[in-house]
Amino acid sequence: MAKKPKLGQNFLVDENASLRIAESLGDISQRTVVEIGPGHGAITALLAPKCARLHCIEFDPVLVRELTFKFREQSHVTIHHADILETDLLALREGDETLDVVGNLPYYITSDILLHLYTAARAGALRRAVVMMQREVADRIAAPAGVSDYGPLSAFTQMHASVVNLFTLPPSAFNPPPEVFSTVLRLDFAPRFDELQVEAEGFNKFLRCTFAQKRKTLSNNLRVAGYSAQQLAEAWPASIAPQARSEAVPLEAMAEFYRNLHPMLQ
Predict the structure, then answer these.
(1) Domains in the chain, please, with CATH?
(2) Residues 6+ apart with CB under 8 A from 230
(3) Under a CB-based contact definition with an 8 Å cutoff, are residues 130 and 17 in contact?
(4) pTM
(5) Going residue by residue through the chain (266 aa), what tens digit of pLDDT does each one get?
């Protein structure tokens, strides 16, 4: 009988997929890599010979012991018994270098982990991430404005990185098999806040307000957030239709709207 996964874990057992994920980081010979949830070390074993330093963040204490023993003779590999959401990524850097990230993200905290990465990206700490997640979540992240899948996670991601859909894996690529397909994305970090002339904290809060209730129009969501009808009318950009929903509004137009509403922040 197959062992039940601990902590919702589904371990990647497709060797070709592991190789493709490791190679998708590009040349890491002089890079520091952070692996989220290394599990039994299938991808870790491919990364370790190729990178300058490797930090593995694993929450399961049994797997931490296994990994620590497996990589005991590789001094540039550090196994951390830690929660990635509580890990200060900036503290893993050598000086002011940027990090590369790889990982099979647990389905139930995928969004939380991504938002944690985006915080580090805004601080200039990340170059690239190759991450695997549930296919439906990946589709939303990569969706362009104007389609129904586009939502707050799409907007937050695309404010921080360019998104490339690399490949999708069936449940049979994992042990035990999950009930869903999984997609691997590459995120090349390049936060757009300066380009769009908005400050990060305020604009992120604004985006959350605009997507608060998916069925409401952009105007109604902002009214609920406390903006008056007069404020909205005076700031409303010509590029946004009066009854538009947030899913239809590109980031460039949303940033223009934010700048119009908050000129004192510019």
Answers:
(1) 6-189 (3.40.50.150), 200-265 (1.10.8.100)
(2) none
(3) no
(4) 0.93
(5) 333 344 558 999 999 999 999 999 999 999 999 999 999 999 999 999 999 999 999 999 999 999 999 999 999 999 999 999 999 999 999 999 999 999 999 989 999 999 999 999 999 999 999 999 999 999 999 999 999 999 999 999 999 999 999 999 999 999 999 999 999 999 999 999 999 999 999 999 999 999 999 889 999 999 999 999 999 999 999 999 999 999 999 999 999 999 999 985 44
